[in-house]
Amino acid sequence: MQYRQLGSTELSVSEVSFGTWAIGGSWGKVDDKESLRALERAMEAGVNFFDTADVYGNGHSEELLAKATKGKEDSIHIATKFCRAGDIHDPALYTEESVRAYCEQSLKRLQRERIDLYQIHCPPIEILRDGSVFSVLDKLREEGKIRHYGVSVETVEEGLVCLESPNVKALQVIYNIFRQKPQEELFPKAEEKGVGILVRLPLASGLLTGKFKEDAVFEEGDHRNYNQNGDSFNVGETFAGLPFKKGVALSRELSWIAEGKGNMTRAALRWILDNPNITCVIPGFKNVAQVEDNLGVLDAASFSSTEHEKLRAFYEQEVHAHIRGAY
Asked: Where would I find the NADP-dependent oxidoreductase domain in this sequence (predicted)?
């Protein structure tokens, strides 16, 4: 396992870390015992950073992380998020009273005295422009409730607004072979400001594993079923904003990336980690096998400059026009 500094913070995190949306809910059925075994396997491999949120299974993923990391609070870092449990457009949700309540609830579920990275969970851009919430987070940081704070964003514009706030230490973004826009302007500016980059949905909700066929059917409780067209939240959170059948067709055209890298999953993660602006990727998982598969990227060779140019051209010519929603 290799480790990378989280921006200008003192935290050094595993370049392959994990997100816990899938084990909390919204990705179909889960087995808590298997989830805990998977978390343990990740930590055995050197993973020291996990991302979660208060709305993942209504706090369930936070509770699972508490069990998995008990006694390891100093060595295993946790990032969690807040605001999606309420009306994200209501300014009252971002007041000190509200944010403090969210923070205390997460601390209780995590069974920790401090959150390593506390993130605003995809708020509207007007909240970010107002900036009052950052003052609230500054206060929680001064009190020792949180170590650092950041923002999970949907668009490049939102990320650029966040970079204007001096104590934002991390941005969580959607970035993958199908979603390359952030690397153009956002990543260099984040590097300049000493802000770390966490990459969520690195596999485009599974499209970049190459395992789906156009007739795939997802469980009713899986967001890949009910949010394919952005009916419940930002369409970019599901299949990177691509219509599912188009995404499957495009992934088939990318089958060549697996050559010499084990499979498409490992290749897709390797492509992200080849970018020096990235702090870590945080793929999801539901079992030990998926953790093992994601960890396989550690043995995958980097892409050549020619291959990177080919994948950039593929995005610009074949993918970009089909992505829906602002990003």
From this structure: 16-315
How far apart (Å, rounded) are the C-alpha atoms in residues 65 and 245? 35
| Domain spans of the chain, in order of start | 10-322
Confidence of residue 27 (pLDDT cuts 50, 70, 90): low
Structure tokens at 132: 């009052």
- Cα separation, 251 vs 208, in Å, equals 6
Cβ neighbors of 163 (< 8 A, separation 6 or more) are 171, 189, 190, 193, 195
pTM over 0.70: yes
Distance CA 210, CA 49 (A): 27
Structure tokens that stand for 139 in this block? 């206060």
Is the CB of residue 268 less than 8 Å from the CB of residue 202? Answer: yes
Read off the amino acid at residue 47. Answer: V
As a dihedral over the C-alpha atoms of residue 291, residue 203, residue 210, residue 304, rounded to 10 degrees, the angle is -100
CA distances for 106 relative to 32, 35, 118, 146, 209, angstroms: 19, 19, 10, 11, 32
For the four alpha carbons of 211, 212, 218 and 223, in that order, the dihedral sign comes to: positive
State the residue for tokens 């480790």: 3
Helix (H, G, I), strand (E, B) or coil at 8: coil
Q: Which residues pair with 305 in a beta bridge?
A: none
Tell me the three state secondary structure of residue 128. helix
Instruction: Give the span between the Cα atoms of 184 and 171, in whole angstroms.
Output: 15
Q: In this predicted model, what pLDDT tens digit does every residue of 97-121 receive, in sequence order?
A: 999 999 999 999 999 999 999 999 9
Contact 17, 197 (CB under 8 A): no
Rounded CA-CA distance 61/322 in Å is 33
Render pLDDT for 177-233 as a digit per residue (tens, 0 to 9).
999 999 999 999 999 999 999 999 999 999 999 999 998 999 888 889 998 988 888
DSSP, collapsed to helix, strand or coil, labels residue 125 as helix
